[in-house]
Specification:
This protein is mainly α and about 160 residues long. The protein folds into two domains: about 1-45; about 50-155, no CATH class. It has seven helices and no strands. Helix 1 crosses helix 3 (about 50-60). It is elongated. The relative contact order is 0.10.
Length: about 160
């Protein structure tokens, strides 16, 4: 076999290996958790609150995927571990340079407001500053679901 043919085969093997790794990673890290959350009623029915919370944390920890319903669940079952993940996810959700967002952004903010009792609006930088200066020093039992005040949505 010629040297050029071996090089081409080697490059093709490397590309194939990388592609296989990327597809496997996407399936295990993104696709399967989202499928379990959205399309497996048996799992959701039998799962403990902690299992559902951990799955919500996993889904919102990765930018690809659909965090809409995990945000809603974390309003009710979130804990101290949820807050930095929600702040990171808010950074991904908020349209750049705007102080308003989409429905999913509102659910992320609702979860943050519910768990912290604070409201720093749509800007993730304000939430990050609060977390660094205050939130990360608070006791774990401070972070629990709270009843949210109804927002006036007529002016939106």
């Amino acid at each position: 076999m010629k040297k050029r043919t071996r090089i081409i085969l080697y490059i093709a093997a490397v590309i194939l290996a990388f592609t296989m790794f990327a597809v496997t990673w996407f399936y295990v890290v993104i696709w399967e958790p989202n499928r379990r959350f959205y399309h497996n009623e048996v799992w959701c029915t039998n799962a403990s609150t902690n299992d559902i919370r951990n799955l919500c944390h996993h889904i919102i920890s990765h930018r690809p995927g659909c965090p809409h319903d995990p945000f809603i669940h974390l309003c009710h079952i979130g804990n101290a571990e949820s807050v930095p993940l929600l702040i990171q996810a808010l950074n991904w959700q908020t349209p750049e340079g705007k102080e308003t967002g989409i429905c999913t952004t509102d659910h992320c903010l609702d979860a943050l407001r519910s768990l912290t009792g604070e409201d720093f609006g749509y800007l993730s930088t304000d939430w990050e500053q609060w977390w660094k200066e205050t939130g990360s020093t608070l006791p774990v039992n401070y972070f629990h679901p709270r009843e949210l005040k109804k927002r006036n949505t007529a002016n939106k």
